[in-house]
Amino acid sequence: MRKANADAVTVTKNELNFRPVSFWKKLWLQRQLMLMSVPMLLYIFLFNYFPLWGWITAFMNYNPAKPLFENPWVGMGNFVWLFSKPEFIGAIRNTFAMAAINLVFGFVFPIMLALFLNEIHVLHFKRTVQTVTYLPHFLSWVIVVGIAQTIFASDGAINQLLIALGLRKDPVFFLGEGKYFWWLVGVINLWKECGWNTIIYLAAMSAIDPALYEASEMDGAGRFKKMFHITLPGIKSTFVVLLVMNIGYLMEAGFEIQYLMGQNVVMDWSQTIDIFALKYGITKGQYSRAIAAGIFKSLVSIALMLGANFTAKHLGEDTLL
Amino acid sequence: MNANALNARPQKRRRKQRSVFPAINTLAMILLMFITLYPVLNTVAISFNDGTDAVRGGIGLWPRMFSMKSYETIFSDEIIYNAFMITIARTVIQTLINVVLTSMLAYALSRREYVLRKFITTAFVLTMYVNAGLIPNYLLIQRTLGLSKSFWVYIIPTMLSCFNMQARGFTIQNPFRRVYHIRDGLDAHMTLLVGDREALLFDTGYGLANLLQAVRAITSLPLSVVLSHGHYDHVLGSRWFPTVYLSEEEMDNYGSAMGNGQRERVLARADERGFRLTPAETEAYSAFSAPKPQPLPRRTFDLGGLHVRVWPMPGHTRGSTALYVEELRLLLPGDNLNPVVWLFFDDRMPLAQYAATMRTVLYLPFAHALCPHDDRPVKRAEAEAFVDGLTPATFRKARPVRIPPYLEQDTRECSPARGFKLIFNAQDVATD
């Protein structure tokens, strides 16, 4: 506004009238922009927000065979049932544990890999490493789980290696024992996504001004000093945005991998909230209880995301919202 | 401080690092590439190895017994071409629509003066975390938009791509062309084969929900119903059909399966599993009288483009029958093959006879088997591994196990192959 006043000569009539323009008038002036955003907006309202209407069935004893409002209301009954069920508490624990492992692995290792890749100056070699490490990202979970089951089997490569190195006498039953399940999921996720997650950090690193490195070299900084004092601070804002996003995903431990790898013997450790909801909703037909589980998950996710966003804002970082 | 020392030390350190670090770094990266590639290459090597030999394990980066058979099997199955076309069509159309819609939106959002910018951004960010969940989404697709069973269900809501069709009380999978594997509310499966002129239903499940209606939702062709054997979890659903076929040796089993005791057991289980029935439905379930089965003819059913052979398989029960679909190389083994095979009822065949039956069924060139207590098709290699595991050595390794409500039986559990269990009566080992 102020700029427009100062430079009055170039101000057109339209812009002079801009000050009192109402929201609706502005909207009308921006009708082309609006037209462009409407299709996608409709799409997400239809497929992401409209189904939220179905949440009311969580407060009913819902039977899909009946018209919606003929189902009896049960208040918070389904939530009470959920939280009195140790199986559900176990599912929450598993979801958080696996998501937390994924979160930590998903930050620490890609950043480390990016730092070390950044130190490679033979361009072809760097490219090769990058391409190879992000290759598994393009494999579907069905294939990855198939591979993992071969590698981690009692006669698989990992056990052969452990025995050959003399670390174990008998094979470890990675796939059949619950205590390994979370870490197995963490490691498989890491294997699949580490290279892919590196890309964004490498991009952030390439945007760092080379003059900073030159200056620090003049001051006698070594390789690791430069990593800690220039490279890492240089990717801090990328890191924070990703962290905020991923903390919101803390309830999202993945679905396919647990669904594909979780056998009955490891069920106590593998069942996540999503699988719990699938089991009760689709297999057992208890729709209302499954929806209640889904609502719980969504609410916690939003709370986590808003919390992280708020914290980041107060630390003076770029945020998502 | 001595200026020389100050300059010299970092330089010395730097030179030392320069000589060692890149080497270590390069080695680490090579190791990392190996870790990334090994599992993939290992899988590729196994895929080029002979199937039976691969089960022995121990294949590294190169096949031990080179064979293209796995690939021949896959590419001789016409389903893969159909699946491939769907994948490609889906990817192309979806990418096009997504790119057009998203770039239009992205342009609008890139204009800082746009008044709806904040609102739309927030709406989008929230969708990453707010998800109404499986069932509300399903209801939207099914009821409101009427999209299920149409190709567009893959395009429009990406979310729902992997879910199955649902008929009331049943979950229906379509693992092969013309084959529907139907799971009822208490997890018994039946299989519907749809030919050009006729359809055939194998087994009927617990019969709680209207199976005829579910079948009619898939096909309106004339229907024959064949039962694998006479146990209650396979035959109670006969109530929905005018005639069913059953092997003559199984008529006694059928009679006792229809008894009130079994029905009450099913109702109690339904209640426990949260499968809700109205009082009228419960009453109808206790009161129905099932059709008297027709003796199963030893003939091939010609459904039009699908020839279904009847194959006796004495094992789980004396009169157990399997079906073999020739065109699809699909075996429906009844309860003789399941993730958990039960071989301890009074009319079971002895273990040796069961093993012989299972070896014989391998003469059929089936590629897949669909089992009554498994969602997933069993591949031939898995069935072969299972049959190979039916040895006295496996039986001797069995552990005692108690199966409620058959606690009076001395049951033993063994695992002939990975993913399979066999539960048998301890007497059978002693006599073998």
Layout of strands and helices, then pairs:
The complex is a heterodimer of chains A (321) and B (432).
Chain A: H1 2-6, H2 13-16, H3 23-29, H4 31-49, H5 77-83, H6 86-118, H7 123-134, H8 141-151, H9 157-164, H10 178-206, H11 210-218, H12 223-234, H13 236-248, H14 256-261, H15 267-270, H16 273-283, H17 287-314
Helix pairs in contact in A: 5-17, 6-10, 7-10, 13-17, 16-17
Chain B: H1 3-47, H2 51-54, H3 69-75, H4 79-110, H5 117-127, H6 134-144, H7 152-155, E1 165-167, E2 170-176, E3 179-184, E4 189-194, E5 199-202, H8 211-218, E6 223-226, H9 232-235, E7 245-246, H10 251-257, H11 260-272, H12 279-287, E8 294-295, E9 300-302, E10 307-312, E11 321-325, E12 330-332, E13 340-343, H13 351-361, E14 368-369, E15 378-379, H14 380-388, H15 392-396, E16 399-400, E17 411-414, E18 421-425, H16 426-431
Parallel strand pairs in B: 5-6, 7-8, 12-14, 13-18
Antiparallel strand pairs in B: 1-2, 2-3, 3-4, 4-5, 9-10, 10-11, 11-12, 14-15, 16-17, 17-18
Computed Rg of chain A: 26 Å
Mean pLDDT over all positions of chain A: 83
CATH names the topology of the largest domain in chain B as Metallo-beta-lactamase, Chain A
Largest sheet of chain A: none
- CA radius of gyration of chain B is 29 Å
User: Mean pLDDT across all residues of chain B, rounded?
Assistant: 81
Secondary-structure element string of chain A: HHHHHHHHHHHHHHHHH
Number of helices of chain A: 17
